[in-house]
């Protein structure tokens, strides 16, 4: 059974930083393309960044500010978010890419205040 647990969110001011963590059980990141997604208050869930053996990809609005990575054991994934903006306010989720509906966790809330 796959379980993905997100943590690290919080309230931060514009320009601040947060590091999100995705802890996994029942799945090996190294053989899957993994991703971070987010859903803002009035938006659909969207892909933020993905990571695989081939490298990383980011949505345009976070390029240069966010960095996706994973640990050597391939069971924990991170999203380092710098220079946060109000439009980054959302609930952040991790999942495989393409997303598997059975794997959604509770997410972690990020609020960027101005």
Characterise this structure.
It is a single chain. With 114 residues, the protein is mostly beta strands. The chain has no helices and 10 strands. It is globular and about 40 Å long. The termini are far apart.
Give the strand line-up of the largest sheet. Answer: 2-10-9-4-5-6
State the major sheet. Answer: 6 strands, mixed
Estimated share of beta-strand residues = over 45%
Order of helices and strands: EEEEEEEEEE
Described by the principal axes of the CA atoms, the overall outline is: globular
Helix content: under 10%
Mean pLDDT across every amino acid position: 94
What is the structural class? Answer: mainly beta
Rg measurement, Å: 13 Å
Characteristics:
single chain; 114 residues; mainly beta; six-stranded mixed beta sheet; four-stranded antiparallel beta sheet; globular
């Amino acid at each position: 059974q796959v379980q993905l647990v997100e943590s690290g969110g919080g309230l931060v001011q514009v320009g601040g930083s947060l590091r999100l963590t995705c802890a996994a059980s029942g799945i090996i990141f190294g053989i899957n393309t993994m991703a971070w997604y987010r859903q803002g208050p009035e938006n659909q869930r969207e892909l933020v960044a993905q990571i695989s053996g081939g490298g990383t990809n980011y949505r345009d609005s976070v390029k240069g500010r966010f960095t996706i990575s994973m640990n050597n054991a391939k069971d924990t994934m991170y999203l380092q978010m710098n220079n946060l903006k109000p439009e980054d306010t959302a609930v952040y989720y991790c999942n495989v890419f393409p997303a598997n509906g059975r794997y959604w966790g509770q997410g972690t809330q990020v609020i960027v205040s101005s």
